[in-house]
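Summary for the steering committee. One of the milestones for this cycle was to obtain a three-dimensional model of the protein with magnesium ion bound, which we needed before selecting residues for the alanine scan. The sequence and ligand used are listed below.
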Amino acid sequence: MIALEVKKMKKNFGGVKAVDGLSLKFEKGQITSLIGPNGAGKSTMVNLMTAMYPPDAGKMIVHGVTLEKWKSYNMPTYGVTRTFQDVRLFEQMSVLDNVLVVLTERGVFRSLFETHGELHLKQAEEILKRVDLWKKRDEKAEDLSYGQRKLLEIGRAVAMDADIYFFDEPFAGLFKEMVKTVVSILHELKNNGKTILLIEHNMDLIRELSDHVIVVDAGKFFAEGEASDVLARKDVVEAYLGE
Ligand SMILES: Nc1ncnc2c1ncn2[C@@H]1O[C@H](COP(=O)(O)OP(=O)(O)OP(=O)(O)O)[C@@H](O)[C@H]1O
Ligand SMILES: [Mg+2]
């Protein structure tokens, strides 16, 4: 079953065809990886799918519903959530509040000034322990290390309890132990039937995690298939290395 389909997406940035008629399909309950060289349009594709900016052309079909226009604030309604390549958090809020905000779905101010139910606190504790940040719960997000910030963002995504997750380079800059944590979280999400788009440059991780790999180059589709097949292709390796 297809959880999400994107058709003929296009985005031009002042002459740069960042995404050039790209169509993608994501099988429900699977990890689909999007790979390709720097500047291939991977992050732009996620930005288009989450309406960070409007596409020049293209449509999206979520759980069978065709969307001609979609807004970023509607993405939770479609069961879609994401992380950012450059990490986005509520910097001035505590680690715990960063997760509670998501769990309570009340927006920043209300969640700061209201007392939380036992349930939300329990859930936040579980998630923060999962990403090894429970001990850091009272620290401000901005005071965390780079890797901890990435883990907190992933924790926030988990807290969304979405159907479809877009992870844009979740492993970049992480220490070994942190990588293991994120790998196990991705496995867990998949085991819970979640649909995952993974953008990643580390081919060992791509091999380990992907059910399906899609290669893009210069905003266009290049190849797809099982990781072992796709990554063994000479033309894919050459495109990746820019040869
Ligand atoms: N907001 C923007 N304004 C102008 N140009 C942009 C913008 N976002 C992306 N681009 C350009 O679009 C192209 C695709 O960029 P994108 O960030 O999507 O690549 P990517 O595949 O995610 O690369 P990387 O692996 O380095 O993260 C690049 O040429 C980039 O410079
Ligand atoms: Mg990118």
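Key point for the committee: The pocket of magnesium ion (ligand 2) is lined by residues 42-43, 85, 168 (CB under 6 Å).
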